[in-house]
Hints:
The protein has a 7-stranded parallel β-sheet with strand order 3-2-1-4-5-6-7, with helices on both faces. It is an alpha/beta fold. The protein has one domain: Rossmann fold. It is globular and about 45 Å long. The chain has helices at 21-32, 44-56, 71-85, 108-134, 158-178, 203-213, 222-233; strands at residues 12-16, 36-41, 60-65, 90-93, 141-145, 184-190, 244-247.
Amino acid sequence: MTSQSRSVKNSVAIVTGAASGMGRATALLFAREGARVAVVDMNADGIAKVTREIEKEGGQASAFVLDVSDAHAIETTIAAIVDVFGGIDILVNNAGIAALSALDDARYDEIWARVLAINLTAHQRLVRAALPHLRKSTAPRVVNIASTEALGATPRDSAYAAAKAGVAGLTRALAVDLGPEGITVNCICPGPILTGMTQAIPEEHKTIFAKRRTALRRYGEPEEVAHITLSLCLPAASYITGAVIPVDGGLMARNA
């Protein structure tokens, strides 16, 4: 057997949407594993706090404020990250928003445009901006965070479901395009996770939903998603690309 590294130590990892939830958990985990982390979010206070957490634990991180819907800001932020860290090895496209809307809502087109700009278009823009630097890496990895809404849908969620299904399709297409260069591109589809997006749901409703719909009968923790993201970014994960992986406690597997 050949020796395959299972370490991201000294790799440069970008995590978007890193101020809270799965993004925060991912940034902290990568830093604990020795990666140098670009903590990216539009919430300046949030990423400053996460960066301090990482540094307090002895890790390396820098905070970068970015609205991922701003194409020009993406370019300047990627340049700033490279200035600080010297390159890019890993890109985790985690930033996203949720927005329920009925089809006949007067603001539907506005909501649609905003959700797709942040949840889908930003992913390809970030990959394209980071690509010259990923090409210089010895173990270049891209992980796009979608949702089980990419695999099914709930009422009044058409914009979000369309965007997340687009992320799954984009992942496969980029895997094919970038595979000859050794750049892997994979997608994670979290199910019900305890994050800011689900915080407003009453606890009793979460319990009922989890017991009725998931095989594990519970909501997941952000760290449980972060560990799958880390696994896909290991140098040893060099032969998995174009995968769309549910991390959902068995939500998609369960019929009854």
